[in-house]
Amino acid sequence: MEFYKILEMWYLNNKRNLPWRNSSNPYFIWLSEIILQQTRIQQGLDYYKVFTEHYPTVQDLANASEDEVLKDWQGLGYYSRARNLHFSAQYICNELNGKFPTTYKELLKLKGVGDYTASAIASICFNEKTAVVDGNVYRVLSRYFNIDMPINSPKGIKYFKELAQELIQNAHPKEYNQAIMDFGAMVCKPQNPTCETCVLADGCIAKAKNLISSLPVKEKKLKVKNKFFNFIVIDNGDLTVIEKRTGNGIWKNLYQFPLIETNKPVDEETLLKHDFFKNHEFKNMDIALYNPEPWIHKLTHQHLHTHFWIINTKHIENFELTAWKNIDDFAVPKLIHNFLEEYKTK
């Protein structure tokens, strides 16, 4: 039996019960795919529910403010996904008259939509024969066909896409694409795959050669950079200071406490010499380090070694103030959210 037929038959009996699978509405499929990028399904389910309740149509999402969208996205990370989602919703409503793109090529024009997402929407909603290639698919194909080409190299990306496209030609696109993704997540897992009961085992070359654990192959990642963040938490009992991040770095348009970034850990004496304290006058202030051990927040290519410095003062000048009681209204990075959850209880 052919590869695609085995997977489709397996899927009919084993597919996961996911809420967006009850719909062929491209808006819901798009939402699910963007949310699930770099996100575990169990975590993504809660966010999918929030977004479909708060923004039941693409028009509702387009009409929302970016701050509202970022607040609902809080905790998922990779916030550019949320900004792109919001931007593309407005593009669909304003430039496409609310008509969702229906082909792979048209879908690629949406900001934040790449090959994988466009393929998923086009195949699931419009039955277009365009193959999805995600981590699960790379794993299944590299093992079944014993391909040791790095999946994160330009050559490897091109090769696996062409192979996946060849395999889908005789398949049912909607069922096949979801089948191979589910199969990679449930059977051909990164660790401890269930090869003994695998329906593809008889044809799997890597299994026959005992190479399952060495595939797929990835090129070495870029060196991780260490950064040192010092957040200044100003507290006069009722008020604090929180600022919106600008620029194109991490956490764009999210809110944070005033930040002093240094090239190494600093003590109180060194911190107080920073220009921040020269430019802002704090009368009768007490400063204390909240966390003696840094909180390390790991991002893809950088680790943030973070300290929170608490400044208690009754006189705050040259700042736009925010009431502590309203602090939860702001969309903040997960790192700030975790601090607030702990600090507010002390």
Could you estimate the helical fraction of the residues in percent?
40-55%
The biggest sheet, with number of strands, parallel, antiparallel or mixed sense and barrel status, is: 5 strands, mixed
Which whole number gives the mean pLDDT? 94
Indicate the low-confidence ranges by residue numbers: none
Strand content: 5-15%
Q: Assembly type of the shown chains?
A: single chain
Name the CATH superfamily assignment of the largest domain. Hypothetical protein, domain 2
Molecular structure report:
This protein has 2 domains: 3-214, Hypothetical protein, domain 2 (Endonuclease III, domain 1), CATH 1.10.340; 225-343, Nucleoside Triphosphate Pyrophosphohydrolase. Helices cover 42% and strands 13% of the residues. It contains 15 helices and 11 strands. It has helices spanning 3-14, 26-36, 41-54, 58-63, 66-73, 80-95, 104-107, 115-126, 135-144, 154-168, 173-186, 205-208, 268-271, 275-279, 334-343, and strands at residues 225-235, 239-240, 243-244, 255-256, 259-262, 282-283, 286-289, 295-298, 302-312, 315-316, 322-323. The strands form 4 sheets. Strands 1, 5, 7, 8 and 9 form a 5-stranded mixed β-sheet that branches. A two-stranded antiparallel sheet has the order 2-11. It has a two-stranded antiparallel sheet with strand order 3-4. The radius of gyration is 24 Å and the shape is elongated.
Write the topology of this structure:
Elements: H1 3-14, H2 26-36, H3 41-54, H4 58-63, H5 66-73, H6 80-95, H7 104-107, H8 115-126, H9 135-144, H10 154-168, H11 173-186, H12 205-208, E1 225-235, E2 239-240, E3 243-244, E4 255-256, E5 259-262, H13 268-271, H14 275-279, E6 282-283, E7 286-289, E8 295-298, E9 302-312, E10 315-316, E11 322-323, H15 334-343
Parallel strand pairs: 1-9
Antiparallel strand pairs: 1-5, 2-11, 3-4, 6-10, 7-9, 8-9
Helix pairs in contact: 1-11, 2-3, 2-8, 8-11, 9-11
Family: Belongs to the Nth/MutY family.
Keywords: 4Fe-4S, DNA damage, DNA repair, Glycosidase, Hydrolase, Iron, Iron-sulfur, Metal-binding
Cofactor: [4Fe-4S] cluster
